[in-house]
């Protein structure tokens, strides 16, 4: 009787081994996919930091008077405008990059180009920071610290998340075009909803920053 019980226990434990191995494999696959996703975001962050530094160096060695005049004009206009005008300016600028990232995600060739919108934005931020410091010294630095950099950090982080979504969507579109089997559960509706969520965050940040500019920018005479 005891032998029969032991045999049954051995058989039951043997049947559980494949299940445990399958669960471990799934867990390992999930952890690896999560790691690659975070690794991609870190890579995008490194690109953005390098782009800010490159923007400062471009201003230092290849400063252009026409570009400097345009940026200075925009800064003065934003400083002296009301809430609505500042909000529209901020939304137009950020939604341009967000829309570019969105459409790159719908292209099968966009996966290798999704880094371009955040890199270009950070390049402009670096160039603007160098210009503000050189033209207005400490007042320019204070203006950047209050009105440009905090807003730029939040919206750039939003753009990095958008670029990450676009990279996955573009890869999925490429697999569909090449008729490759894919187990990815990606839908256009989910892609649109995630971008809509990021757009709402950008709108809220733009409204807050426009309010700060409206109330405080006049007190900093550049």
Descriptors for this entry?
222 residues; mainly alpha; 5 helices; 0% strand; globular
Helix content: over 70%
Count of strand segments? 0
Cα separation of the termini: 94 Å
Shape: globular
Q: Please work out how many helical segments DSSP would assign.
A: 5
Which secondary-structure class do the elements indicate?
mainly alpha
Strand fraction: under 5%
Summarize model confidence as the mean pLDDT. Answer: 81
* Biggest beta sheet attributes: none
Order of helical and strand elements:
HHHHH
Question: What is the rounded Rg?
Answer: 25 Å
Low-confidence stretches: 1-12, 28-33
Brief summary of the model shown:
The protein is mostly helical and 222 residues long. Helix content is 86%, strand content 0%.
Describe this structure in words.
The structure is a single chain. By secondary structure, the chain is an all-alpha fold. Helix content is 86%, strand content 0%. It contains five helices and no strands. The longest helix has 62 residues, at 116-177.
